[in-house]
Amino acid sequence: MTLSISRDDIRSGTLKTKAEPPVSDQEMEQAVRTLLLGLGEDPDREGLIDTPKRVVKALKFLTSGYHQSLGDLLNGAVFHENTNEMVLVRDIDLFSSCEHHILPILGRAHVAYIPNGKVIGLSKIARICEMYARRLQVQERLTAQIADALEGLLKPQGVAVVVEASHMCMVMRGVQKPGSWTTTSAMRGVFAADPKTRQEFMSLIRHSPSFH
Ligand SMILES: Nc1nc2c(ncn2[C@@H]2O[C@H](COP(=O)(O)OP(=O)(O)OP(=O)(O)O)[C@@H](O)[C@H]2O)c(=O)[nH]1
Ligand SMILES: [Zn+2]
């Protein structure tokens, strides 16, 4: 059976896989064993004997967002409410994996919206962040997907998402800049159109993050 994940599916984040992956767990474990051999290790020594299994399990967990959909995680938690005030959930921890190196992206998201007749369960905002984080990502796409999801679900007056993250591929290897972190934002509706609304959001999230 083939797994049809198109680039558009991944970009839009509406993907819900219906088929089993075309590669078995055993084949994945064999690939990890090959990696260990390539690293000059002995995959049969005591400490490594179960490592292929563990690595496959861990990677599947870290990418489990591919198998979730907005409908599943929402569980109907969208409510009619007449409020025009900004709702902000800040400091949502994010653990994602960069698609270039499959190394961790550690950070936080701040998510705000201004309702237009509907509000969403607060925890669902964090769950949406988690679903997109548990995929192979670039930070820009992760940020945009969170904003697009809320926009699509609530049709609010506006959505603002800021993600601040440190990329282990820039910290532990490559350019090796442990203190660096990256800010990305996605502004929709009034947050894009009205500098005062955007400024209010930015002043509410101002703080000094520390990821290590
Ligand atoms: N825009 C963007 N770039 C990312 C993200 N995560 C990793 N990268 C970058 O992806 C790029 C991949 O560049 P390559 O030159 O193909 O890979 P590389 O040789 O491993 O690059 P170095 O990290 O510079 O050693 C690097 O510049 C990474 O910093 C992300 O979330 N967004
Ligand atoms: Zn990377």
Automatic annotation (TrEMBL):
<dbReference type="GO" id="GO:0003934">
    <property type="term" value="F:GTP cyclohydrolase I activity"/>
</dbReference>
<feature type="binding site">
    <location>
        <position position="169"/>
    </location>
    <ligand>
        <name>Zn(2+)</name>
    </ligand>
</feature>
<keyword id="KW-0342">GTP-binding</keyword>
<dbReference type="GO" id="GO:0006730">
    <property type="term" value="P:one-carbon metabolic process"/>
</dbReference>
<keyword id="KW-0554">One-carbon metabolism</keyword>
<dbReference type="Pfam" id="PF01227">
    <property type="entry name" value="GTP_cyclohydroI"/>
</dbReference>
<comment type="subunit">
    <text>Homopolymer.</text>
</comment>
<comment type="similarity">
    <text>Belongs to the GTP cyclohydrolase I family.</text>
</comment>
<dbReference type="InterPro" id="IPR043133">
    <property type="entry name" value="GTP-CH-I_C/QueF"/>
</dbReference>
<dbReference type="GO" id="GO:0008270">
    <property type="term" value="F:zinc ion binding"/>
</dbReference>
<comment type="pathway">
    <text>Cofactor biosynthesis; 7,8-dihydroneopterin triphosphate biosynthesis; 7,8-dihydroneopterin triphosphate from GTP: step 1/1.</text>
</comment>
<keyword id="KW-0862">Zinc</keyword>
<dbReference type="InterPro" id="IPR043134">
    <property type="entry name" value="GTP-CH-I_N"/>
</dbReference>
<dbReference type="GO" id="GO:0046654">
    <property type="term" value="P:tetrahydrofolate biosynthetic process"/>
</dbReference>
<dbReference type="InterPro" id="IPR020602">
    <property type="entry name" value="GTP_CycHdrlase_I_dom"/>
</dbReference>
<keyword id="KW-0378">Hydrolase</keyword>
<keyword id="KW-0547">Nucleotide-binding</keyword>
<dbReference type="InterPro" id="IPR001474">
    <property type="entry name" value="GTP_CycHdrlase_I"/>
</dbReference>
<dbReference type="GO" id="GO:0005737">
    <property type="term" value="C:cytoplasm"/>
</dbReference>
<feature type="domain" description="GTP cyclohydrolase I">
    <location>
        <begin position="28"/>
        <end position="206"/>
    </location>
</feature>
<protein>
    <recommendedName>
        <fullName>GTP cyclohydrolase 1</fullName>
        <ecNumber>3.5.4.16</ecNumber>
    </recommendedName>
</protein>
<dbReference type="InterPro" id="IPR018234">
    <property type="entry name" value="GTP_CycHdrlase_I_CS"/>
</dbReference>
<feature type="binding site">
    <location>
        <position position="98"/>
    </location>
    <ligand>
        <name>Zn(2+)</name>
    </ligand>
</feature>
<dbReference type="GO" id="GO:0005525">
    <property type="term" value="F:GTP binding"/>
</dbReference>
<feature type="binding site">
    <location>
        <position position="101"/>
    </location>
    <ligand>
        <name>Zn(2+)</name>
    </ligand>
</feature>
<dbReference type="GO" id="GO:0006729">
    <property type="term" value="P:tetrahydrobiopterin biosynthetic process"/>
</dbReference>
<keyword id="KW-0479">Metal-binding</keyword>
